[in-house]
Amino acid sequence: MVTSATQVLFPERIYQCEANIQLIAAHPEQGCYVVTDRTPFHPVSHIWPDHPADRGTVVLESQVHEVVDCLVGAVEQESGQLYVGADIPVKRDEPGWVFVVVHHLAESIESSVGTKATLNVDEQYQLALSRGHSGGHLSSLALNKVLHHDFWRKDASRKDELGHYDFHSYAQTESRVTEDCSTDTYRIGKTLRKRGLNAADMIAALPTIADQINQQLAAWCEAGFPVDMRREGEALTDSRYWRCDLQEGVVVEIPCGGTHVTSLAEYAALRVEFQLINEQELVMITHSQPA
């Protein structure tokens, strides 16, 4: 059986599906890897692992198996060899290869290729991650907006989707999504200062900046703007974009492969706090409260 690229269902908020097993491989330490033709599970990215893997179960012949991890894999079609996570040797769209979602089961299974399985995602966990991830996009946009007029002395060439100087893109070194939370780490180095950021003024004004961001987030959440995911295809590696019209003159569209809310009405509140590690490292934590 030739393995096909996994059809992913998580952008549509589908939490359960029937699927056919395409490939089973032994895990190097415990359990096994299972690849199906489609899945509602979101895998952790091997390139930018900011969004954790979904949790859930795979049911095979009435037996429930825990999914202990969910990863990105690539299959060389000629040999049928599966490579997982950091071991993937090619980029997406490499001829002769397909990218798949790999479900790591806690124990080995005796099922064969072609067997039907029922895949169940932990809905509440995925929703909490979705709120955290969309909240991170919103807080980064609000941060750029607040900094735009008062903390740049030059016309920085890079702008965000709303036309504001893109501090977030320039400075971000790490991002991490957890349940109802997003954590962004920024480096405020010499390069950013040369681009025109008044870093010392910004650091001194962090409490005021946080207040202004939180006011903006409150206004967006109260408006309850819808969010959708634009997809260029159904495969795991097809590009996906987070889209939201914040009534700021243009529809925001951010490339993103994570899971997300469908409306800002899903938030009772969004707020940020800053942690200044030193003069060159700043952390912004975005907390979400479900409606």
Automatic annotation (TrEMBL):
The keyword Metal-binding applies. SUPFAM superfamilies: ThrRS/AlaRS common domain. The keyword Hydrolase applies. GO terms for molecular function: aminoacyl-tRNA deacylase activity; metal ion binding; nucleotide binding. Keywords: Hydrolase, Metal-binding, Zinc. This is Metal-dependent hydrolase. It comes from Photobacterium rosenbergii.
